[in-house]
Amino acid sequence: MERLFESETRLKILSVVLAVILWFGVMSSQNPEQARTVYDVEVIPEGLDPGLAVLSLEPHVVDVTFSGPPEFLEDLGPRDARVTVDLGGLGPGEATRPVTVIPSRGRLRVVRVSPQQVTVRIEPRMEKTVPVELQLNGEPAPDYVIDNPALSVDQVTVAGARSLVRRVARVVATVPVSGIQSTIAHSVTLVPVDAAGQPIEPAYPQALVLEPLTVQVTVPVVYMPRKTVPVQARLEGEPAPGYEIGNITIEPAELAVRARDRRVLEGLEFLQTEAIDIGGLSRTVTREVALAPPEGVVLDDGPRTVRVTIEIRPVRDVGGAAGGPDGGDGAMEGAGEGGGAG
Length: 342
Known about the structure:
eleven-stranded mixed β-sheet, RNA Polymerase Alpha Subunit, Chain A, domain 2, elongated, alpha+beta, 342 residues, 5 helices
């Protein structure tokens, strides 16, 4: 009786095993494994000493071929594979290391990795702080001007391979402003540049890291019509006794100004300089003089000063003869000094 029971138990176990084998066979025949390749999977360095940085990693992406059931291969992408290279124990210099692939989905097998090894160049790590420079490309629409652009930060930290970090002089935020008529605000990606303003583009992206990588830029734009007006010199004092003011030359003779109120511009006939003291002068002088626009008026792009030449000459009497300070031979003295610049 016991033998019969044991025999029946063995038959049941054998039946279950055979059923499982048969099920797997049927499933395999109905859902045969397939292969699919995922391209450009990023290689992640691991184990590198904190005092070092990767200058280059060639290649820094690899292609990975997986096999598995079709349902596990659907929508397969770079995110479904983690590819690493162990840099533990390495110092500055060049080395070749194998890569390791870990699938993120169950029942996937790695069939092939191309290439299987990468070459890495390592340098000491360096970090420094550099200024942020704003570059505006283009011009706003006519009669509109840009008013005090602002950056969310004025400095960033640059870190990475020493040879690259040393080259960075500043980082640049470039904003296109051609034709704009209203204030704009953008998040702008920063670009590191060298002392000559040339972009620094590392072969391996992580060889040069900016913190932060982006900056918020606000560019206010206001409506300010433009007008070109002549420049007038404002003189104070009197020349020396026996001398008078002759020709006055101003360079440039005209300048462009702007105002938010169009009526202010319509009433503006000329632009004065700051006061020029000519008290006691007996010879021609040239002065670099700042401008003094009225309230509500600003200078457009251009010089903020003008060059004023004031001719100081002996006073001429009614008969055409020149009289110097003593009324005698002052004409000769004045003529000799008249072309000089003070």
